Task: structure prediction
Amino acid sequence: MRRIVSVLLLICVSVLSFSQDFSYDYKQGKKKYRSTVERSDSLFKVNYFQQKGKKWKNTGEEVLIPLSASGEVSFPDSLALHTLNNGKNYIFYSYLDTCPSEQSYSIGLYDLEDYSYHMLSFSGKALKPKDGEAFRIEGLSSTAFAEPCPEVEYLDSLLRSDSRLLEISQEDMKTDSYISWWLESNPDALKKARTIEFGGVSDDCSIYTAFKKAKKSEKGKLQAAVCDVRGYTVVVVRNTKAKSNLLVWAEPQCKNKKTDRFLSSVYFENANSLVLFFYKGKSTFKYRINLANRTISR
Result:
């Protein structure tokens, strides 16, 4: 993705430490204003005050900024008042949304004058944070889906310069999603499960790219192969007539082939039975998966 250089220059930044409430003072012409921000797990609430003599009078305006979150929300970064070279004052805000399958870091700019806001997110796989980091994510940003404007360009530049965010390709992102779905749908696959859920796989992901290069077993209109991709060993079955792909199996990639279980190959026993052949040390074992009724025998 092309790196975008923001056309907005930061003139001043006032960062406050986190507490339950936030207050920002600023000027518009000769008038002095104060905006207070309260946060919850579902929204930011902005209230406006104007200075009248030595007192602050509530203008009666209240704006709610919703958080598009679906998991556990946290606030790893401070709120800030940004005054940009267009002369406008913006509240910069951010939050981290953590779900079982992914994390999403969202940042936004709220325009104190016209009450509009712009937001971008970076979503993907949660990685182990480095020292001093609150989080680390491998994934993609939502920039491609946002309406282009100076505020969005500025937010995009912030995401791109954030060392906690590691961008990957769309192909790998789809692969991670497919594997994550399979693992969540088959939590006991490596232990005692008697049935297996299969997931569809599109041609535009790195699983399919690996499948095309892999050695295949064939039976009629079906092809099957073992592939190593994104830290996992997967089994893909392709119907060459329908041009469709199934993710039949996924497990963490073997790190030590001399001692750990290692999925070596697959082959068709008949039109409906697919055999997964494993090594573990010097011993071998097999799983048989019935492609028709999705049962597994060990």
